Amino acid sequence: MDKVIIFDTTLRDGEQAAGSSLNVQEKLEIARQLERMGVDIIEAGFPVTSPGDFEAVGRIAKEIRGCSVCGLARAVKADIDGAWEAVKDAADPRIHIFLSASDIHMAHQLKKSHEQVHEMAIAAITHARKYTSNIEFSPMDSTRADPDFIYRMLTDVISAGASTVNIPDTVGYAIPEEFGGFIRNIFAKVGNIDKAVVSVHCHNDLGLAVANSLQAVQCGARQVECTINGIGERAGNASLEEVVMAISVRSDQFNISTGIKTKEIYRASRLVSELTGFAVQPNKAIVGANAFRHQSGIHQDGVIKLSSTYEIIDPRAVGVPASSLVMGKLSGRHAFKERLAELGFSLSEKELERVFAAFKELADKKKEVTDRDIEALMAEDKRTVKEYYHLERIQVTCGDRGIPTAAVKLIGPDGQELADAALGTGPVDATYKAINRLVKVPNVLTEFTVNSITEGIDAVGEVLIRIESDGVTYTGRGSDADIVVASAKAYMNALNRLLTSRDTKSQDRGAQG
Ligand code: KIV
Ligand code: ZN
Q: End-to-end distance of the chain based on CA atoms, in angstroms?
């Protein structure tokens, strides 16, 4: 069977989503899961954009051995040199060069003529060819460009050495039949197209990213660029899980395969959602909380009799845990470890010790600990960033009489105990003000959401916040059976990220002299 190459750009285009702020450790964590899941190429970042991105791409390139690692570059020498420097240690490094190709972009953004852009593209590929033959070229905004210009450009970049030509629907403008026709024309009009892989990169502004990608596959494209949960610039990119499962479930239509281990999809989706702070909508295909839930009596009756009456995918095929085994305070370490393994987590003894202690603490407060609670404990454990300040204690009073008051005790950077108290308009406001009196880092809270992880009055609450400081957004998450404590943990998490990033930036400045 023919194969479609899965090019994952969660860590590059996905990271461009407004409000995303993954640190190097988190990017590595996601890259490991993508490798485990069997993607063919990880686009790990855009190295010249920041020292942090350069470092993340470099670390991923060095560590990930099971697939190709790619760095993005504009069609200029410095970007290409930077991208190569970052990916060169990968098992199979790739440079991805993009350049605006539509009249609107060329006239208003680049302020260059067709000929100048064409020359830039060839010069860029020729330069990259000094480093590698694994070169991808993307004429940006292809679907709004003059098609004849695209055919000519593709012909010449392939002659110059591009091994993959990617057709981006940058603003999500195309509709499936039109896009399929464009791909067919590329095969008809680009004389040397058999020397390159044709790829597509679709955005979701009209909700058509997956449909357009699948149509392109039907018309001969053999690489699809996509992201976990469909995250990305604006309305996002084609969702990896939807593209992969459509190709798999409807193999009768596609007669093609991907190398994705579909059982890893759910875990990848949870991890990306946890680390980016972008919740997955309940009705999201494949990975949403309701994707395999049946509400109407007729549907439930059908599924009980024969699951395929209303289910086209076995939830286990995408790694959704088969049972929702409930654990409690009497559950032992061994049973806990087994459940973790069934949920796809394998921990070292030290990690297990830490998470088991957190589980026991939760089981004391909460009668039943569900799979989602365990996933939240694991996420809380992963969330650990360098702790400049650690939340040691918090005491809050609130109600409809009196003024909400919070007292907090933190352990500071040198291990010193710091304590203070503050009044606020509510318990969370009082808590944040008390923490601010100790940490003293100016910032603005731009987002605050509370979600209950599970159902019931004793559910664990998960708080997601975003704070902004010097134009940069930092995400913080915290979970606890008490939502004010969860809010305090989320704020400490965001502040510690902010301080880590400042530290890294000042070290970078120091290193540059
Ligand atoms: O959407 C786009 O055009 C891109 C390119 C860099 C491929 O992300
Ligand atoms: Zn894009």
A: 55
DSSP 328-339: -TT--HHHHHHH
Ligand 1: atom nearest CA of 237 is 1
Residue 57 one-letter amino acid: V
Reference 287, options 297, 274, 296; nearest CA is 274
pTM of the complete model: 0.85
pLDDT in tens, the chain (513 residues): 699 999 999 999 999 888 877 889 899 999 999 999 999 999 999 999 999 899 999 999 999 999 999 999 999 999 999 999 999 999 999 999 999 999 999 999 999 999 999 999 999 999 999 999 999 999 999 999 999 999 999 999 999 999 999 999 999 999 999 999 999 999 999 999 999 999 999 999 999 999 999 999 999 999 999 999 999 999 999 999 999 999 999 999 999 999 999 999 999 999 999 889 898 998 999 999 889 887 788 887 888 888 889 889 999 999 987 655 678 888 888 888 888 887 777 788 888 998 999 899 888 887 788 887 888 888 777 666 788 999 999 999 999 888 999 999 999 999 999 999 999 999 999 999 999 999 999 999 999 999 887 777 778 888 999 999 988 888 898 989 899 999 999 999 999 989 988 887 676 666 555
SS3 126: helix
Instruction: Output the residue whose Cα is nearest ligand 1's atom 1.
Output: 170
Most ligand 1 atoms within 8 A of CB, residue of 70, 150, 164, 170 to mutate: 170
DSSP state of 107: I
**For a pocket test of ligand 1, which of 13, 49, 212, 224 has the largest count of ligand atoms closer than 8 A to its C-beta?**
13
Ligand 1 atom nearest the C-alpha of 16 is 8
Show Cβ contacts of residue 122 under 8 Å, excluding neighbours closer than 6 positions. 156, 157, 160
Please list every protein residue whose CB sits less than 6 Å from any atom of ligand 1. Answer: 13, 98, 138, 140, 166, 168, 170, 201, 203
Torsion sign, CA atoms 50, 65, 4, 81:
positive
Rg over alpha carbons for the chain, rounded to the nearest Å, is: 25
Question: Which residues are in the CB-under-5-Å shell of ion ligand 2?
Answer: 13
Q: Can you spell out the DSSP letters for 401-417?
A: SS--EEEEEEE-TTS-E
Atom 2 of ligand 1: nearest residue by CA position: 170
The alpha carbon of 508 and the centre of ligand 2 are apart by a number of angstroms equal to: 29
